[in-house]
Amino acid sequence: MKLILPVEVASEISPHLPPSVAVVRVDSEGNLDGDATDAEVYLSWFNLKVTTLHKVLAVSPALRWHHAPNAGVDRFLTPTYLERDLILTNGAGVHAIPIAESVIGYMLAHTKRLSELYALQAEHHWKSHFAIQELKGATLLIIGAGGIGQEIALRARAFGMRILGSRRRPEPLPHFDKVVGADEWRSLLPEADYVVIATPLTPETKGSLDEAALRLMRPHAYLINIARGAIVEEPALLKALSENWIAGAALDTLITEPLPPDSPFWSLPNVLITPHCSAHSPKVAERSLALFLDNLQRYRSGIALRNVVDKRVGY
Predict the structure, then answer these.
(1) At residue 110, does pLDDT exceed 90?
(2) Which of 5, 106, 288, 290 keeps 20 to 30 A from 96, CA to CA?
(3) Catalytic residue numbers?
C-alpha cells in the first residue's frame, strides 16, 4: 500500500507505519517526491489549496480515500473532485475543544465588557459603575448542534445558561434544553441572548442568516460565527450592527479572508474580528494525526472509517 503524505507531517507519521506501507511526500504546491500512480490514500493538511488538491488527483488514478484534517470540506467538493469515486473523511471533532473555549471567551468578553476595560487601562482611567452582566440564566442558541456545538453546550451549561440547538436530525442531546430541526432555528431567535453559528456551509445554509433572521433577534442579542462566513448575508449583518438591531458580533470567519483593510467591519465598535483562529491549538495537530492513524488501521482492516463525509450534503 502507498500513501501520499504532506511534507509538514510526513516525518511524524512515518514511524507509526508498518514496513509494507510506502510513502510519497507532497508539498503545499502539489509537487511530489515520488510516483503516486498506485497510491491509495491521501492525507492532506491544513490550508490545502484547491489547485494542489487537483494536482494530486491528476497524478493518483488509483486513489480511493482522502482524509482532510479540516472540519469543513465544502471548498474541496469541486466538479473535478466529485468526478472521482473517493471516500472522503474529515477532522470533525479535533477542533471542537479550542473552538468551544473560544466561544465562551467571546461571550465573556462581551458580557464583561473586556474591550472597554482594556481601553480604560490603556488610558490610565478608573471608571466605576459598569453595566456588567452574567452568563447565568442567559439563553444560548447554537445553530448546528454537531460535535462543536455539543462541546460549546457542555461548557455553557457550566455557566448556568439555557441552551437551545438545531441539527439536521433533531433529537434530545446532553446539556441542551431543546433541539429542533435544521429548518426550525429561526423560530428560536427571539428567545436567544447569544446566537452561535456552528453549522457546516452547504447550499441550504449559505446565506441563511439573512436580514429577516437578523430582524428576529433581540436588540441585546450577540452573534458569534465560528463556522463559515458565507452562512451570513454580510450586507444585512453590516446593517444590523450599524443600526443596532443587535448588540454586536464576534466574527472569526468572513466571506473574504483575509478581511480587506478597507472592510467596514473593522471599524464597528460592537464587533470583534478574529482571524479565523478559534480552532487554533497545538493539540489539534496531535488529534488530527491520531484520527488519521486510527482510520488508516481501519482502512487496512476493512473496518468502517470514522468521519465519512456525505458529499451530497457537504459534511
Answers:
(1) yes
(2) 5
(3) 228, 257, 276
Q: Are 197 and 237 within one domain?
A: yes
Q: What is the mean pLDDT of the chain?
A: 97
- In what order do the strands lie in the sheet containing 41-43? 22-26, 2-6, 41-43, 65-67, 87-89
Are 180 and 119 found together in one domain?
yes
Dist. CA 35–CA 26, nearest whole Å? 11
Q: Are residues 10 and 129 in the same domain?
A: no
Instruction: Tell me what pLDDT residue 314 has.
Output: 86
Strands of the sheet containing 162-167, edge to edge, are 178-181, 162-167, 139-143, 194-197, 222-225, 248-251, 271-273
Question: 142, 117 in Cβ contact below 8 A?
Answer: no
Instruction: Give the pLDDT confidence of 3-27 residue by residue, as tens digits.
Output: 999 999 999 999 999 999 999 999 9
Q: Which structural domain, as residue segments, surrounds residue 290?
A: 2-94+282-301
CB atoms within 10 A of CB 310: 8
- Report the CATH number at residue 39: 3.40.50.720
In a shared domain, residues 59 and 157: no
User: Are 120 and 173 members of one domain?
Assistant: yes
Number of domains in the chain: 2
pTM of structure: 0.93
What is the model's pLDDT at position 313?
A: 87
Q: At 268, phi and psi to the nearest 5?
A: -75, 125
Write the Ramachandran bin of 179: left for phi over 0, alpha for psi from -120 to 50, otherwise beta.
beta
